[in-house]
Amino acid sequence: MNSPIWWLKFGGKPGAWDKSTIVYNHHLSLRGIPASAQEYLLGSRSAVEWILERYQMKTDKESGIVNDPNLWGEEHGNPSYVLDLLKSVVTVSIETVRIVRSLPKLRIATEKAIA
Q1: Percentage of the chain with pLDDT > 90?
Q2: Hey, is 11 helix, strand or coil?
Q3: Nearest 5 degrees, angle CA 79-CA 58-CA 48?
Q4: Per-residue confidence at 57, pLDDT binned at 50, 70, 90?
Q5: Phi, psi for residue 5 in degrees, rounded to 5
Q6: Do 30 and 9 touch, CB atoms closer than 8 A?
Q7: Which of 3, 37, 51, 64 is the least buried, fewest Cβ under 10 Å from its Cβ?
Q8: How many whole angstroms separate alpha carbon 9 and alpha carbon 18?
Q9: Share of the chain above pLDDT 70, in %
């Protein structure tokens, strides 16, 4: 795959993000991501949002060092690593939400009911 990340972001514009679309770069967007993918939270944000934040190309202002997530995949023979990771996180998020929704409601016994 010769489509490096230039940015990872939701579709749409600030204030009106389309979370059903992730723009990977100028050539590639992932569309049709179900809203349930945003319900699987890691702390205060979704796992998808976490990936979008962490896998950005960034340049440190002081040192000029470039943090390019594309390089790790290329160095390890998997240039589509970030894209594959993103797709996996979307799938895991959707499936986790589906499984949790299918669980029976938790019933907690009170002390009075136990006695």
Answers
A1: 70
A2: strand
A3: 65
A4: confident
A5: -70, 135
A6: no
A7: 64
A8: 10
A9: 93
Q: Are 80 and 20 in contact (CB under 8 A)?
A: no
Distance CA 100, CA 11 (A): 28
pTM of the model: 0.82
Listed as own residue / partner, the contacts of 3-9 with beta carbons closer than 8 Å and 24 or more positions apart are 3/27, 3/28, 3/83, 4/68, 4/70, 4/79, 5/55, 5/56, 5/57, 5/69, 5/70, 5/82, 6/57, 7/56, 7/57, 8/51, 8/52, 8/55, 8/56, 8/82, 8/86, 9/52
| Strand 58-59, strand 45-46: pairing | unpaired
3-state class of 70 per DSSP?
A: helix
Phi, psi of 37 (to 5 degrees): -65, -25
